[in-house]
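For the sake of transparency, this paper describes our internal protein records without simplification. The record that follows is passed on verbatim for readers who wish to inspect the format:
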Amino acid sequence: MIPPRLRRTARSILAAVCLVTAGAVLAACSPVKEDRGYIFDPKDLAKIQAGVTSKEQVRTIMGSPSTTSTIDGEAWYYISSKFETYTFNRPQEIDRAIAAFYFEKTDVVQEVAYYGLEDGQIVNFVNRTTPTRGKELTILGQLFGNLGRYNAPGAGIPTTGAGNPNRR
């Protein structure tokens, strides 16, 4: 017989272990959020005006761009993304902000544009794989494909000896 005091202590320890385990499980299920790229400051963005601000002033206020246009560098892009990850899943982008500054030939801001996640387009990249012809077997087809196929005696590679009909 277990004394009542020991039974209460065991229950208390079991309850504490259950609470700690439940807390760890709940913490593991909560999403991990992270910011990537350039973090925008609304005060800095308000300082840049089309037709007034020069390219060097944009660099001074905003810093180096995340990327530039491939043609003559006439557009600068500052890109920021927010990602969310649940447990073992891949990170999922939940928000994107892009500030684009388009410049005139005189290196003055011509236009300021803002883009979000909804403005993005899915691009289908070429995967450069060549399809192969032939039969694609499942795992069961591979395992049981040779059932009933066996070499009968005398068929296949000739052996040396008295039983060989090809022997001279």
Notes: The two ends are 91 Å apart (CA to CA).
